[in-house]
Structure formats: C-alpha cells, structure tokens
Design goal:
It comes from Macrophomina phaseolina (strain MS6) (Charcoal rot fungus). The protein is built from 28 helices and four strands. The protein is an all-alpha fold. The chain is globular and about 110 Å long.
C-alpha cells in the first residue's frame, strides 16, 4: 500500500490516468479524485445530474475497470464493508443466560428484552449468571467481578432514593444477583445475597408491593373479574395492551421469585422464612406460553385459546364479567388442600397445565407448609431423651399434604408424557421442560420430606453459608447404629421408596424434553445444564435419603443372607420379592442401573461383602450425577461429600471381604 501510494504521488507519469473528466480534458488515476474535481470545478454538472452514478457513466463510456487497485485503495481508506465482528462477551453471556438459566427461572420477559436499551445494572446481573454457562476457565472469577460491579451500582442507585425499588428492573436485577450470590458457594457473596434478600423483603413491605393495589377488594377465587378486552382492531392498541400485561406480570413474577428465594434459603441453610404466603396478594403467575409469546398477536391468540371454553358462546343477557379471578397463592393452596374437591376445579388450577412456574410456586408453598408443621411438631412432640419416630407429622397432617400433592399432580403434565392439553391441543412445551422438571423434583422431595423430614430442620442446626450446610447435611445423613438413629417403620420406608424411585430416575435423565423418546434425556447429555442450581441442592438431599434407605436395606439383606445360608441360592427371584429389604434394594439398584443392572441372585449368595457393594455402587452413582451438575459450584461441593462417603464404604467392603476369607 505504501509503495502504491508513493508511486501515485511522486511518479504520476507511470500511472495510467483512466478516469477522464466529461467536461474538460483532465484525466485522473482514481475515481474519487475525478469526483472531487467535478465537485470543485464543474458544480453545475453535479447539480443537473444528481441521479447519474459514476459507475453507470464508466460503463457507458467503456472506461476500464478500477480492478484490484481500487479495491486495495478502498480497503486502505476504510471504504470497504468491514467483516462481521464476533458478538461481544456481554452478548454471549446474555445469550447463554436466556438459553440455559432463563427456562428454569422465567423472571425476565425475553421477547422484549433489549440488550442495548436495558439498564446497565440489569444487563450486568444477567451477564454474571450467563457467563457461568460458558466454557471459559475464568468464568467464576468473571462472574464474581460482574456481581460486585452490578451490586455496587445498584446499591448506590437505591441508596439515594428508597422508592426506586418500585422499578421492576431494579427488583429483577437484585433477584438475579441474590440467586448468583446464594449458589456461588462463596461466604462473602452469600452474605451479600442475604443482605439483598432482607432489603428486598423490607422494601416490598415498606412500599406496599406485596399486592397489586386491588387487595382491598378482598377478592376470592370465585369472584368474577372482567375478561381483558381484545383491541385487535389496531396493532398499536394490541401492542399497548400486551406491553401493559408484560409490565404487570413482570412485577408479579418478581414478588413470587422473592418468595421462592426465601424458601430456598430456608431449605438450604435452615434459616427462618422472612415472608409468608399470606402476605402475597397477587394472583398466580400466568400461563408460561402466554408469558413467552413473542409478539402481541401471538399473545392474543394464546389468550383466546386458553379461555376458549368460556368464550365459545355469547350470552346477550349476561354481563361482561365471565372469567373467575385467578386467586391468590394462599387461596389456591387451600383449594388443593380441600379434601372434598369442592374448590379443586378453579380456573386458575385448570390452567396449571400451561403454567409450570405457577405450579412450582404452589408446590414450594406446600413444601414450606410441611416444614412449618414439622418445626412446630419438633417443639411439641420431639423428646430428645428417647428414640424418635422418623415421621413427625400426624396421619391427618400427612394425609392432607399428600392429598394436596396428588391434586396438583392431576392438573399438570406427567413426566415422560407429551404435555398435550386435556382437549388434545398440544402445548409448545419443549422450552418449558426444565421448569416442569424443577416442579416434579420439588414435588417428589416434598412428598419424601413429609415422611423423612430434613435433618437440618429437626436438629435445629442453622448454617450461615452453603458449603457448611452441605457438609452438615452429609454428616447428619451418615448411617448410625440402631440406638442412635430414628425409628424407620416399614410404612415410612415404602412411602419413601415410591417417590425415591421416580426422583432418582428423573435425576439420572435430567430435564431434557418431556417426550418419551426425547434425545436430551439420556445420561451423560448436556441436559443437566438447564437445571436451576436449587435443584442441585434438592438432588443432593434426595440422594442422602436414598443413602439411608440403601444402607438399611443392605445391612438387613446381609444379616438375612448369613441366617439363610445355602438356601439363599434357591429361588432368589422369589425371595427378592418376598423379603422387604431385598425388594427395596432391588428397586433402587434397578433405577440407577436399569432393569438389567439390579442386584443379581448370585450377589445375594456370595456373602455380605458383595451385597454391601450395592451401597458403594449407589454412592458412586450419586457422585457422578452431582459432578454432571458442575455449572454452579454447588454440585462439586456435594460430590466431594459423596466421594468421602464412597471411600469409607469401599474400606468397609474390603474389611468384610477379608473377614469372609
């Protein structure tokens, strides 16, 4: 380039002047020089021929092409079209957020989220979570740096004016930062997350944001509300209505997300809840396909589909009030708890088929209700001096919560089944599979805990950070001698086994999609990346309960094997079903290894050491599942606990083998 420019500047005779001026005898070596000459010396020509391009004139006069020389010069002067730049790291982080994390916590409205228009604090909060889902080695350090920057900016912004908490984007940014701080397994970040949570709870109470402004009407789930008028006559009017819906629903989802995080902190570290379901006077979150509608037209179409059964026939003598209110969280929960089914056909509960987020909120409320009942029972009926029953709740309490769980299960798509609506209309549900997966894992965990309560809860141990809570839970789950453990009645074991089998199967498959032949559901797939980090904690707690059951079954099976002697080898299949401990162990091992991987008859006949290998195999399987969930640090901390347990189990098996010899 420098040589060409030197030749053209200092040796003009050696350069062909292929660009003549149409008005005079001047000739030029470049087209841009000719344009400048015409503009300066023949302005009248430029004004009279505004539509004539120089390229067309060159073609008409059969002038030589500019060729490679002009391309080089254009590149030098920056006139050529620049190559497409790769997306910025911030864009990549946000894309990863919406692809992997957003389906598990649909707090933001993705169709209207504009990276270039959103406040920088919200973008930073999104990016600090999104970068965790990228393959770069420094993702944890990068996430922490963005967390600190976003947190500092938000604190400065809200410190000046407390009322700024009323802005929806402020709530969203704080909620995302709190989520990141909780599950990064960092003491300082968890402390900041707890401070954020306290600030959020205090702000929504102080600013009266726990209701939507209509709570004073004391609406009930059966009180009617007007159907939103469809203003489809103009696209502008429809879009305005859609954006209004987005704003209202965003605020509602923020409040429910604060409640969910409050529950998660309680389950994780045994902290006392700071907000009650009775305080939340919002209706349940809307159907998730309605929330994720990409356009106002799609939103209107989906809305009409949901309420089609109410709007098919018109009543000219009726009022405009037709669709019942969706109800509050507390009222909807009461409908689920109703034993007689009088409140179970509420329209909002019917719409749970389309609403995984609302279903997740409801099952979380049932979990918190079970924890409160268990906590109260520990204070009233848990004497420390004697051996205690595993199940703390009374049969009436157990039955009522179980009934509520069954009721909500009847209204939601089953796992491994196509989530088609009851009337045969299929839902575009693959994008909601991670959220349904979260719902079912939480459902199974809740059902387990009403028979096998959380160890941190019943011992009253409160931890101030997540790694300590994980370590303590692992320590409390360690097998103990009979005089130091709770009484495991057969009824409790079989109740737990029913949910444990389904839970372990879901843990092994991951979220994937809900179809039977979904390609993402296989073990080893990347589907677990789409799990919420709270689910990793529930997976750990479920597997700890499974460890207790496996250890009880293997110990009993080993003792029976020693007593039965040579008779064990005969009719093993029959004995495996007739002996409860063997049936329990066979059922669990069949889930983690497949039907062909259950404990074989030869294993029962080969001594206690071989039977105890089932425990070691189970612990290694759990460790593998937790290591798969390593996007967030939670999984690695939990896997380390299970690795330690597996090493001890291996030593125990070695000692048994030596004694058998």
């Amino acid at each position: 380039e420098n040589l060409k420019r030197h030749v053209q500047t200092h040796h003009p005779s050696s350069v062909s002047r292929s660009y003549p001026c149409p008005q005079c005898d001047a000739r030029f070596s470049r087209s841009d020089l000719r344009k400048r000459h015409v503009r300066n010396c023949h302005p009248s020509m430029e004004m009279t021929l505004p539509a004539v391009s120089w390229q067309a004139m060159e073609d008409e006069l059969c002038l030589p092409s500019t060729g490679e020389q002009n391309d080089d010069l254009d590149a030098f002067f920056g006139l050529s079209i620049p190559p497409q730049r790769p997306p910025s790291p911030e864009t990549q982080y946000c894309d990863a957020f919406f692809e992997k994390f957003h389906p598990t916590m649909p707090l933001l409205h993705e169709p209207t989220f504009d990276l270039n228009k959103e406040p920088k604090q919200l973008v930073a909060a999104v990016a600090c979570i999104g970068c965790l889902y990228t393959p770069m080695e420094s993702r944890f350090a990068t996430s922490r740096k963005m967390f600190e920057e976003a947190h500092g900016a938000l604190e400065e912004y809200t410190r000046e004016d407390r009322s700024r908490f009323q802005a929806t984007w402020v709530l969203q940014a704080y909620i995302l930062l709190e989520t990141c701080g909780i599950y990064m397994c960092d003491d300082s970040l968890l402390l900041k997350a707890q401070n954020i949570h306290s600030s959020l709870v205090g702000a929504i109470r102080e600013l009266q944001m726990t209701h939507d402004g209509h709570a004073s009407r004391l609406e009930t789930p059966t009180s009617p509300e007007p159907i939103p008028e469809t203003v489809g006559h103009t696209s502008a009017g429809l879009r305005k209505q859609w954006l209004g819906f987005v704003e209202d629903e965003s605020r509602k989802r923020c409040i429910y997300s604060i409640y969910l995080l409050d529950s998660q902190l309680s389950v994780a570290c045994n902290l006392r809840p700071q907000i009650s379901a009775l305080e939340i006077k919002y209706k349940l979150p809307c159907a998730d396909d309605l929330w994720s509608a990409p356009t106002s037209e799609a939103w209107e179409t989906i809305q009409n589909q949901h309420f089609r059964s109410f709007n098919e026939r018109d009543d000219r003598f009726g009022t405009d009030e037709a669709t019942p209110s969706q109800g509050s969280l507390f009222d909807s929960t009461q409908g689920l708890l109703d034993r007689h089914g009088q409140k179970r056909d509420l329209p909002t509960l019917r719409l749970l088929w389309y609403s995984p987020f609302a279903a997740f909120v409801l099952v979380t409320q049932l979990q918190m209700m079970a924890r409160e009942l268990t906590h109260a029972a520990c204070l009233l009926e848990r004497p420390k001096r004697c051996q205690r029953n595993l199940s703390i709740l009374t049969e009436a309490q157990h039955g009522q919560i179980s009934q509520a769980l069954r009721s909500i299960a009847e209204l939601t798509p089953r796992p491994n089944s196509s989530p088609a609506a009851p009337n045969g209309v299929c839902s575009p549900s693959d994008q909601f599979a991670p959220l349904w997966h979260s719902f079912w894992i939480t459902w199974r965990y809740t059902s387990i805990t009403i028979s096998h309560p959380d160890s941190l809860l019943v011992t009253g141990i409160v931890e101030t950070n997540l790694p300590a809570a994980i370590a303590t839970a692992g320590h409390l789950a360690r097998p103990r001698r009979k005089q130091h453990r709770d009484v495991y009645e057969d009824r409790d074991v079989f109740r737990i086994l029913n949910d444990l089998e389904h839970a372990l199967d879901a843990i092994g498959r991951g979220p994937g999609n809900c179809s039977e032949n979904g390609g993402e559901d296989g073990p080893g797939s990347g589907a677990v990346e789409r799990e919420n980090p709270f689910l990793t904690l529930l997976v750990f707690k479920i597997c700890l309960v499974g460890w207790r059951i496996v250890r009880l079954a293997t110990a009993d099976a080993g003792e029976r094997d020693a007593q039965d002697g040579s008779t064990v080898g005969r009719g093993v299949a029959r004995l495996a079903k007739c002996t409860p401990s063997r049936f329990v162990l066979q059922s669990i091992m069949a889930v983690i290894n497949g039907e062909d991987g259950a404990v074989s008859g030869d294993s029962w006949a080969n001594g206690e050491a071989v039977v105890m290998l089932a425990e070691l195999e189970y612990l290694k399987w759990v460790q593998e599942q937790l290591l798969r969930r390593s996007i967030w640090p939670v999984g690695r901390w939990e896997a380390a606990i299970m690795e330690e347990a597996a090493v001890e189990a291996a030593d125990y098996v070695s000692l048994l083998r030596e004694s058998d010899v």
